[in-house]
Task: structure prediction
Amino acid sequence: MTVSANELAAFLPANFILGAATSAYQIEGATKADGRGPSIWDRFLVDPHLPHSAATGEIACDHYNRYKQDVALLKKLNLHAYRFSIAWPRVFPQGKGKLNKAGLDFYDRLVDELLAQGITPYTTLYHWDLPLALQDRFDGWLSRITCSAFADYSRAVVAKLGDRVKHWTTFNEPEVIVAGYSTNGLAPGYNQPGIRFHVGHNLMIAHGMAAKAIRSTRSDAQVGIVLNYNNIDPVDRTLAANAAAHNRFTAAYNWYLQGLLQGSYPDFVENKLLEKVNGIDKWFKESDRSLIRQPLDYLGINYYTRFVVDAEGRDVHDSTQRLTQMGWQIDPFGLARLLDRLNKEFKLPPLYITENGAALDDQVVNGEIHDTERTKFIADHLTAIAAVSRLAKVDVRGYFAWSLMDNLEWPLGYAKTFGLVHVDRTNDLKRTIKDSGHFYAQLAQALKSRSS
Result:
C-alpha cells in the first residue's frame, strides 16, 4: 500500500523541493535548428557499427518547439522546480569560438517561461552532448583544451542567464561520460577501458575550471555537480565478497567524491594517472588538487538501483527481485543506506536527489496510464529520504523525479519509459499525465501548503 500524499508531505523535511528532471538531447529535438552544431550523440546514433536502436534525437519530444506546453505541464503538476540541461552545441556550434545567439536565446525564453509560472530553474551545463567538433579536433575529454572550452561556455551561459538562474550543475554523471570512452556502448564509443580514470580526472579539472568561471561571473551563483551512485552489495559475508564490493564501489563512484571534497584520489587511481596515455606522461599534477576541490554549494545524487557482486566482483543476478525495463532491481531502502554511508564517510554539502525513477511497461487504457508501480516507487524512495533525513540527520533539500516525460533513452531508443508524463509517439507526441504524475502533483501541492 502506497502512503498518501499528505502523509508523505508531513514526513519530509521542511521546505523540501519537489521537481522533475530532463536533459536537452533526450527531449529537445530540432538538432539542426537555429544554428545548432552536431554533438557526439548525433553521430553515434547513426553509426551502423555501434550498438544502438537507430532512434535519434532529431525530433525527440520536440520540446524545442513545445517548451511552453511542457512548462504548463510542470505548472499543472504543481512542481517547485525544473532541472534541465543546456545543449552546448546550441550555444557554441563548434564547441568554442563564436557564440550562437539564437541557440542561447532558446534557454533565455525557457527560463523566463519557468519563472512566469513560479517554477525555479535548476540548470545543468553538461548532460553528455559534447560538440562533435571538440571530439574530432581534440579527442574530447581526453584533452584539457576541451576543459578550457567548457569553462568558457559555462561563463557565457551564466553571463546570459545568471540574473535569473541561481543553481548551476557543471556535470551530470561523470562516470557515464567516462563510459563513452572506456566502452563502445555510449558516445563517443572509444572502447578503451584503460583510459577511464584519465577521462574522469579531466572532467574533475573541467568542473573546477567551470566552477571558478561561474563564480567570477556571478558571485551569487550556487555551484554543484551531480554524481550517479548505486549500492554495490556483497553476495555473502565473506571477506573476499565484501572487499570486491568495496573496491567496485570506490572505482565506479566514490573516487570522484573524494577528489571533489578532499583534492585527492585513492592511491590506485593516482597511480593509474601516472600511466602514459595520448602522449601525456603524467595526467595528475599537484596543482590539480586545489582546482578539483572547489567549494560545492550542493551535491546532486542520481540513484536508481543496486548491484550484488561475488568475490571476483562479478554481478550476481537474483531472479526473485522485481526488475524495471532496464533490468535494475527496485531497492528504495538502498537510497537511505547510501546517503547514510556517504554522510558518515564525508563532510557533505547539502544534497539533492537529482534523478530517481523507474522505466516500466506502461499501458494506455482509455487514454489513461495507471502506473501503480511507479507511484509506489516514487513514494517508497521519498519515504527513504524522509527516514534518513530524520534519523541520520542527512541534509537532503529536494528530489527531482526522472523524468518529466517519456524520452530518448540514449542508445536504447524510446521503448524505455521513465516519465511522469506519457508521450504518444504515434499521435503527434501527445502528452498525458500518468497516475504517478497525478500523485506527484498532490504531493507537491501538499508540500506547498505545509510551507505556506
Residues 5-451 form a domain with the TIM Barrel fold (CATH 3.20.20.80). The CA atoms of residues 246 and 303 lie 18 Å apart.
